[in-house]
């Protein structure tokens, strides 16, 4: 008996087609779905867990959870939003399991009242993509370190908005929080990032064109050598 040939999926396949393919246990559909969403989902997991290896593990488990539940996906929301919710839930469950409760910042709107005034002043303009501003590996690592240093809830919203360029509506849906909370947290996260990067810039300016250590020693020795030559010629 010849088994039916598995349907192939090209890069232009719609999310609905991929979801149906995965529901039908198509390996090709599952592979394409993962390649399409690996980066944004990993970034979301990384923003919550702050550990590359743990984020990868969480993403793997989230994909399997998505596979088991994809039959329930009806397209009421974007597939990306649906998958992101699963990743967020998996990451939060890992944090609870590891008993790092002191580091967990709730994803709901509690505690944001103090930022309400700032929220009303924040416009709906699209955020500037962080990656487009990072020049070279050193800049990228600096920005990643400053993102890691953000408080948990702010960090996740910042990654979704500034790095992945998701809309306020999409982030609110993924995290199950009010849109106003997304705006507030992003405003605060962006302010914290600017302050942190400004401090780094001030320190860099203070040390610009530094001429100490080995460089200083080298020029001193060269000048002294010429000084001795001059003294010898005069003697």
Characterize the structure shown:
The chain has 235 residues and is mainly α. The chain folds into two domains: 1-103, RNA polymerase sigma factor, region 2, helix turn helix motif (Rna Polymerase Sigma Factor, Chain: A), CATH 1.10.1740.10; 105-209, Winged helix-like DNA-binding domain superfamily/Winged helix DNA-binding domain (Arc Repressor Mutant, subunit A). Helices cover 69% and strands 0% of the residues. The protein is built from eleven helices and no strands. Helix 2 packs across helix 3 (52-69), helix 2 crosses helix 4 and helix 9 (168-175) packs across helix 10. The longest helix has 28 residues, at 179-206. The radius of gyration is 26 Å and the shape is elongated. The protein starts with 14 loop residues before the first helix and ends with a helix. The model is unreliable at 101-125 and 131-135 (pLDDT under 50).
Morphology:
elongated
Number of strands: 0
CATH class designation of the largest domain: Mainly Alpha
Please give the oligomerization state of what you see: single chain
Write down the Rg.
26 Å
Helix content: 55-70%
Structural class: mainly alpha
* Strand composition percent: under 5%
Provide the CATH topology of the largest domain.
Arc Repressor Mutant, subunit A
What does the average pLDDT come to?
79
CATH architecture of the largest domain: Orthogonal Bundle
Contiguous runs where pLDDT drops below 50 for at least 5 residues: 101-125, 131-135
The CATH superfamily name of the largest domain is Winged helix-like DNA-binding domain superfamily/Winged helix DNA-binding domain
Number of domains as seen in the coordinates: 2
Distance between the termini: 106 Å
Name the helix and strand elements from N-terminus to C-terminus, one letter apiece. HHHHHHHHHHH
């Amino acid at each position: 008996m010849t088994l039916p040939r598995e349907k192939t999926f090209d890069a232009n396949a719609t999310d609905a087609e991929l979801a149906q393919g995965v529901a039908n246990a198509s390996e090709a559909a599952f592979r394409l779905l993962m390649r399409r969403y690996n980066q944004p989902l990993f970034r979301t997991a990384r923003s919550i867990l702050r550990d590359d290896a743990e984020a990868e593990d969480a993403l793997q488990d989230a994909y399997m959870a998505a596979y088991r539940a994809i039959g329930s996906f009806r397209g009421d929301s974007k597939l990306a939003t649906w998958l992101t919710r699963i990743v967020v839930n998996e990451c939060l469950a890992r944090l609870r399991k590891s008993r790092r409760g002191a580091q967990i910042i709730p994803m709901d709107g509690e505690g944001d009242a103090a930022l309400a005034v700032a929220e009303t002043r924040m416009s709906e303009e699209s955020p500037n993509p962080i990656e487009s501003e990072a020049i070279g590996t050193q800049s990228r690592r600096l920005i990643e370190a400053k993102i890691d240093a953000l408080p948990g809830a702010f960090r996740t919203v910042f990654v979704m908005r500034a790095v992945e360029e998701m809309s306020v509506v999409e982030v609110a849906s993924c995290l199950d929080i009010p849109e106003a909370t997304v705006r507030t947290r992003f405003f605060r996260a962006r302010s914290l990032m600017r302050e942190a990067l400004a401090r780094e810039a001030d320190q860099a300016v203070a040390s610009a064109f530094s001429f100490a250590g080995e460089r200083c020693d080298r020029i001193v020795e060269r000048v002294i050598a010429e000084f001795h030559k001059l003294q010898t010629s005069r003697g």
